[in-house]
From TrEMBL:
It holds the Pfam family LysR_substrate. Belongs to the LysR transcriptional regulatory family. Residues 2-59 form the HTH lysR-type domain. Keywords: DNA-binding, Transcription, Transcription regulation. The keyword Transcription regulation applies. This is LysR family transcriptional regulator. It comes from Streptomyces katsurahamanus. CDD domains: PBP2_LTTR_like_6 (cd08423).
Amino acid sequence: MLNSARLLVLLEIARGGSIVAAAQALHLSPSAVSHQLARLEQEMGVALVERAPQSLRLTPAGRRLAEHAQAIADLMAVARDDLRGHSAGEAGVLRLGFFASSGLELLPRALSAFAASRPHAELELILGQPHELLPDLEAGRLDAAVVFEHPLDPWRRRPAVDVELFFDEPQLIVVPLRHRLGRSSVVRLAALEGESWIGTRGGDTGEPVLERACATEGFLPRVRCRSDHYQVTIALARAGLGIALVPALGLGDTAGVHVCRLDHPRLHRRIGVATRATNRNPLLRAFLTELRSAAGEVRSLLEAQWS
C-alpha cells in the first residue's frame, strides 16, 4: 500500500530537483528524505530517480508517479479545506424538517439569513407534521425540526429530543364576509355552536383539536369537510361552505373572508424547534441562531396584528 508521506517526498524532489531542496521544503534532514525515497523505490519495485555525483533527476517512472503524487496532494488539500469548512460551520449538510405553515414566513426568514452567510452549506428540507418528523429526528435522519404543539393535543415527549419553544401562535376563526360574525373582532367558541365547519385532520393522537375544544364547551362541531391545506380551508369558507379554525401562520390570502380572534385559553399552537442534544453538526448552531431571530420577528408581527 502506497504511503502518502513518501509520495509527498517524491513530489518535493520533483519540484526542487534535489534531496537537499526537498528536505528543506519538508523540514526533514537530507538523510531522512533519502531513506523515504529508497523505501518508496523498494515498494514500487522500480527506480524513481537517476543519481549522479552532482545532480538528481526523475526517471520516466518517477515522473509518472510524481504526477500521481501531485493529484493526491491536491485531493488531500481539498479534503482538508472541506473538513475545515465543516468544523467552522461554513459547509456541510443540514437536514431540516418543518410543518407546512412554518414554511410561509418563519422558516424562509431564518433560511434566507442562514444561506446568505453560509453559501457553501447544503440544505435538505423535509415537509411533515411534527408527529411524523420527530421519529426521523430521534433516529438522526434530521438535524432539527420546526414543530408546533397544541395544548389540547400534546405529542409524546421523546427522551433523546429537546424542544425549545419560541412563541404561542393564535388560532383564528375565518368566516364568509356575509356571515353573522362578519363584523366581529373577537368571538367565543361557545357562540359557534350549530355552525358548519371546514376542519383539519387529527395529529399524533388522531383526534382533531377542534373536536376537543368544542367538547370543553359542551357541543360537537358539525364538520362538513376536512383539509390540511389552509388555503383550501379558507377558499371553502369564502365560498360559504362553513367557518374554519386557522392558525395565524397559515392565514395567507384572506380576500373575501373575515377573520376573528378566538377567545379561548387553550386554542393556540406553541411554535418551536426540536433537536438532539447529542448532535454535533456545526451548521446546526448557526441555523438555530437565525431561527431564534426569525421567531422573534414573527412573534412581534403576530402580537401587533392579533393582540
